[in-house]
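Researcher: Here's my situation. A collaborator sent me these components and asked whether they could plausibly form a single complex. I don't have experimental data yet, so a predicted model of the whole assembly would be a useful starting point for our discussion.
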Amino acid sequence: MKKSLLLVRMFRYVARYQLKLSGLILLALLGVGFEVLKPLPLKIIIDSVLNSQPPPALLLSWIGDSAWLTGKSTLLLVCLAFLILSAMGSALISFLVTGYTARLCQRLVNDLSLDLYAQLQRLSVSFYTRNKVGDLLQRMSGDVFVIYFLVAQITLPAITSLVSLGAMFYIMASINLTLALVALSVVPLLVISLAVFSKPMEKTTEIQYQKLGDLSAFVQQSLASMRIIQAFVREGYMRKQMELFTSKYSQAFQRATQVSAGYNQLSTLITGLVGAVVVGIGASQGMSGTISAGDLFVFLGYITALYGPVNSLSIAIGTSVVITSRSKRLFDILDSKETVADNPGAVAPASLGGAIRFDHVDFGYGQPGQHQPTLHNITLTVPTGQTIAIVGPTGAGKSSLISLLSRFYDPWRGKITIDGRDLRDLPLHYLRENIALVLQDPFLFPMTVAENIAFGNPQATPEEVRAAAQAAQAHDFIMRLPQGYDTLIVETGASLSGGEKQRIALARAFLKQAPILILDEPTSALDALTEAKIFAALSRLAAGKTVFIITHRLSTIKHADLIVTLQDGAVVESGTHQSLLSTGKTYAQMYNHQQIA
Ligand SMILES: Nc1ncnc2c1ncn2[C@@H]1O[C@H](COP(=O)(O)OP(=O)(O)OP(=O)(O)O)[C@@H](O)[C@H]1O
């Protein structure tokens, strides 16, 4: 997408609040009015109070032209009153504009953050495999403020600067057109300097925020794995890595800052030089009597005042270049097509049975043809209500196989059906609502124990939560926690043992009461007795449900309706425990080996 379009798209967010923004702009323009008119009372004081020129015609039309009103004392009072009013007005308006801008911008940041969050929720697992969490965090918490800059540092300053430049030019031109044109020559000069600097500014900013993303990702990963770093005494190594990331970021930051500073200094220089030329010409015209002392005062006042809007205009243009690169980082997320799409016309059936079929499924991580497949030609049929165990050596593809059921990925070839419907013909949210899942690494949220268990079924009553915890053999240890079910779990469940976390994750899956239950090594961290109790509860809870279970402990799945052995991504055998034992092949060898061990 063209970079200029990125800002246009960003404006669509701002356009949602066009009424509020218009009000804000009008208020800011009122402030501009006070600023622009500021030197005029001083001109009147110099020309008509201190000297003998008549007051300007416009003023006379306002206050009348009786001798009393145009007396020097009254004029002085009128001018002073205007100066006081404009000082108070400017202060009040600036206060209001700052407050309203902050409020509007915060809303915009919130809107953008929510859209990004919603899109992140839609994106598939492959997106998260490709992007680092720390970098995404940086985009969500840092880059999202580009919309703030768009309003507060670009739109508002650009409009108010242009209007005040126009108004000042109009007044200056009515005093002395030549001088006004010299003063305005600053604008094309600034445009030329921006044309020279915009590409390098854009590039260096893009690199700067990429490096910041890398640094954030490294810090995030280090914090999450601090125990491992300490256990392996790799603090020194990690510090060196950190130095590397920070030095790369510092270099990029310095380069971007230097380029921006170059542009800013050049524009300051241009403004200063043009100002000096105007002062020189104006002063010499004043000396020759071409313009009055009051007019020259207005002119000089505007020359200094001109710097403000010209400078904020150049900052606004510079910022727009910088935020274009940062907006791109946001639109990369918003435009990502790495979502799991439903087939057109996907509809939810009235109910879901749970008969599952893998039909000649090939799957791999990455692109077919460019990457090796992980699963080859998988064909499996699991009738409703049956329990199927997937076994096989580590890396055989067991977790990959079940990840296809929740459509974390789609097959390269072949299809998976539930009750005869292709998974892609079911709305994704409907499919996932009908699957309860326990992953190998049970993730707990920083919420209470009860909330963690009820995560997939927030309407569950406390009694139902308790019953699920009992089935998962979690109730007793939960009751020993300081606040029982109301105990707040610290981030990722760091204060619980691996087995405790697994049991909460199991309770969460049991409580969901979905027709399909997928358990990926759900009891790997549990002792044999607890495991046996959980499997007893499972056989009761799983009545009528289709259950997929992956386990390395083969004694737990002896009663499964079907056992499938995977090896190197292919089904090498399937059958019941007894039938597989009798073949003496892979399953039998693994089982016998575990019996001896
Ligand atoms: N996100 C991923 N991206 C690329 N390759 C992956 C990804 N996840 C798994 N793999 C690869 O796919 C293969 C199968 O992995 P999978 O996790 O399905 O095996 P598994 O049988 O469940 O292993 P284990 O018993 O150790 O859990 C492995 O070679 C693994 O390296």
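Model: Some features of this prediction you could bring to your collaborator: The mean pLDDT is 87. The chain is about 65% helix and 10% strand.
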